[in-house]
Specification:
alpha/beta; Bact_solute-bd_prot1; 12 strands; single chain; signal; ABC transporter substrate-binding protein; SBP; 42% helix
Length: 450
Amino acid sequence: MIHLKKIGLIVTLSSVLLLSACSGNGGGESKGETKGGKKTVVVSVMMKDRFLESAVQKFEEKHADIHIEMKEYKALPKTGEGGMSMESLSLADIEKYGQSVTTQVISGKGPDLMLMNELPQDKFVGKKLLVNLNDLLAKDNSFDRNALYANILKASQDGDGLYVIPLSYSLDLVRGNTELLKKANISVDQNKPWSWMQFKDVAKKLKQQGYEGFENLSPTDLLFDYIEDNYAQLVGQGKPGFDSELFRNMMKEIKLMYDEGLLNEGLSGFASTSSKGAFIMAGIYSPEDALTMASNLDYYQKPSANGKKNGLPFKFHYSLGMNSKSGVQPEAWAFIKFLLSDDMQASPNLTGLPMNKSVADQRFNEVLQKIKNGTLDTPIPKNMLPDMEKAKKRIEEVQKLISEADLRRSSDMKVLTIAMEEFNSFMSGQKSAEEVSKLIQNRVKTYINE
């Protein structure tokens, strides 16, 4: 899956393609049975994609008694090359989708399965709208839980319950131009956590030498990152904390970094040797992504608001939740298991890092072999690709990072949208931090209590 910035700034194309909704009305409703005695499992998706379409076809070939009905909220027009155009998808579309699915599920209706990436997971779990998949895992002797990354599964839980299961995920890191940092005589430890305040010191030194701290990082992107870093304090447990010095200081710090020219939104060819940017927000989205990163780049911890390491963060790409009111839970579970099988996890259409450990190792080795043979299809010039020794070392580094991933980063799309809308008036100088924080607080509180 190709990646864009988060929705209008926040949504990656990966998450967009994974959203859940129904054609025309948002969610779709489980029918339970169709003519011929088949059980129908309704799966809510924002847009169909190749991975899901192929999964449905293969699953139905193996399960003649189950029909998977994909309910699509918005079909994207095809481009001339046979791809899909993203121009017709708006923030309003995604918001309407979320509202529609949420309303249907709360009313006791809705689809059997939902791709949860842009749905309010906290609200769904709090209102007991999702099945605890740990119960199904425990009862099913045919499913090998050990085939999946245990640390990712554990970190995907809400309390002791697993209400959303990831099919694939990405690691939330930044890429740093190691060679540029050496030229600037600046040392940043790849393995140590650091704060945005520490980054400011680095950015000032870089600026003095004609370099930039981050490339292509907008104020809104940074705001979203701050909110996700402090989500428990700002949104958690239904008690918003935006009307606080914590959040006001966040906004002021962001504005100051842009006012002082320490950050900008420009992009000047990060992977190239002539690049002036030291860092870029780009984690590990797939085995191919990790091994085709230019040889002058390395992965670094992402700066945080407090500079403390609370865990190595990851984000869902595909993540599924099961409606607790579904009348076809065994059939829905069978489809989830199929999506986690070796066959589907090895699909070239699955984007993100596979949840299946053996498949992930296989994917890394396949990319490594293509690098060795010179057959890897990548826009990166071959002379900038890592050599075999560097590629093998990078695999080891990524596998270690995967084993350490233990902090699920998630947020409510509606909350981020509210924050973005009000924050822009602060950045433009139209409203004070105090005014904006109170407006966000009131709007988020209203939304949470709906």
